[in-house]
Amino acid sequence: MSAHDLRCIKAVARAAITQGLFDLTGTDDPYMLADFDLMSWMITSMRSSGSRKWLGEYHTPPEICELMARKIVGDCSEVKPGHSFCDPAAGTGGMLRAVVQMLRERGIDPATCRWHLCDIDPIAAAGAAVNVLLWKLGPNSTVWCGDTLAQADTERLALEEKAQIYEYRQELRWKAATVAAVRQAEELLAGATRKAA
């Protein structure tokens, strides 16, 4: 790591501490964690207005997100476990953040729902992925980078890739368990051989 990289990390850490960002993320309360879209604020602050315009990136104020969520989702009476929510131009997930808070206000755990977030900008999609974890949306969440206007099946492709990743993870877990079992058997055998000698 270069001296420049270290200076940058130090500057980001100092800004986080002095600006109170840990106050926003230093809790285990899911409602408080989702009360603020930290990733949107960071990404919007880091980009120039010209680059945001070129990307077609417009930050939707939380109040507008909450108003739209209340209009679309209503009283949440139709939301049952497994209900899907999708935002094909999610940015960092601000619109779905408003839905998450509505669900929690009504005693519904968002982790029982399915969340699908897509954005054409990889940095915004990465911010959405961080928010999915920070807001505790659970394992039924999928975030991907794609152009939903140019290719209608980006969600299907993302879900197929997610399934392949899970399958590969399971294969690695099985191999790791097998290696651990073989090592344990070797250790037991070596111990028994030492005792017999």
UniProtKB/TrEMBL annotation:
<keyword id="KW-0808">Transferase</keyword>
<keyword id="KW-0489">Methyltransferase</keyword>
<keyword id="KW-0680">Restriction system</keyword>
<dbReference type="InterPro" id="IPR029063">
    <property type="entry name" value="SAM-dependent_MTases_sf"/>
</dbReference>
<feature type="domain" description="DNA methylase adenine-specific">
    <location>
        <begin position="50"/>
        <end position="155"/>
    </location>
</feature>
<dbReference type="InterPro" id="IPR051537">
    <property type="entry name" value="DNA_Adenine_Mtase"/>
</dbReference>
<keyword id="KW-0949">S-adenosyl-L-methionine</keyword>
<protein>
    <recommendedName>
        <fullName>site-specific DNA-methyltransferase (adenine-specific)</fullName>
        <ecNumber>2.1.1.72</ecNumber>
    </recommendedName>
</protein>
<dbReference type="Pfam" id="PF02384">
    <property type="entry name" value="N6_Mtase"/>
</dbReference>
<dbReference type="InterPro" id="IPR003356">
    <property type="entry name" value="DNA_methylase_A-5"/>
</dbReference>
